[in-house]
Design goal:
alpha/beta; two-stranded antiparallel ribbon; 13 strands; 8-stranded parallel barrel; 342 residues
Amino acid sequence: MIKPWIFEFFAAPVALAEKFDPAASQRFFDAYLDIWASAEPAGFEGIFFSEHHFGASYSPSPNLLIANVALRTKKIRLGVLGVVPPYHAPWQLVEEFGMLDHLTGGRLEIGTAAGIPQELAQVGIGVDEARARFDEAAEIIDKALAAPVISHHGKFWNFDDLRLTPRLVQQPHPPIWVTVVSESSARKAARRGARISTAFHPLSKVIEIFNAFRDEADKVGRKVGPDDFCIRRQVIMLEDQEALAKRRKMFHEFIKTDPRVSLPGRPAALDSPSAHSFSIGEDEFITGNAAAVAEQIIAQCRSAGAGHFAALFDRMASPAQMKDYYRDFGAVTIPHMRKAAV
């Protein structure tokens, strides 16, 4: 079985950046809250929100979205891929995880990400500092998920006998996810006991990353399977080639601002142990009608051994179109995914 997820970037409306209209902004928020609630009857496993800052997204604090959507749903799982610890105090994140697990009735998924270099740079956090903060925060989070009272002495945080409440509803803890684009990050996640999600790369590279995770898990005596892997791809439920070309062009224009990305004729400007480069393969785009989309998803997940698939739906779609995509994906694509063996 391949579990179907939504990956939600929640892009900020371009028109509102140029001229802010409070009423239009409110309508946009309300429309998406209704869309996300419709994911449950459509049959999705859950929604992964994302954390982005400084203009690109309407989701600088995705935990607030989880709290709201939890009130509108009963079964769907809710998480973030991922919360960016370099911006936050890790002890407060743990406390928020505890609150959210209660507010969702035990439906929380915990996900972390190292962050986007060009966003972090705007508040003076370089990639080396961000990676160091992420690693230390992950250590604190793991300690706190295992025990109610923790002590820690590191470079960025120092405390003794800190009691973090409320404890999580799901014991010992909810599933833990990490976004990765490199084999070294995958190995680190395997040692932590986390699951991994990756995107962007050609399928061949995704398989290499997943195999590195499997190899490291085997070294530490951890048994892993399809449930530990998620492929995230852009899903564009259109067949018109001109429209699809427009979507691809828009995405490449958007992603080229990330110094880690390697594009044809433009190698990555940033590739280091703190911020690994990545490429964009044609496998990143899953297109066509709902049945064709199902075939492509199943083929990729089977090849990589992934039991989860997260769909980033067409960013150019209106809220009304997005709701239709959820409905069609749920009616046709999801039944095929849930029947598929991996």
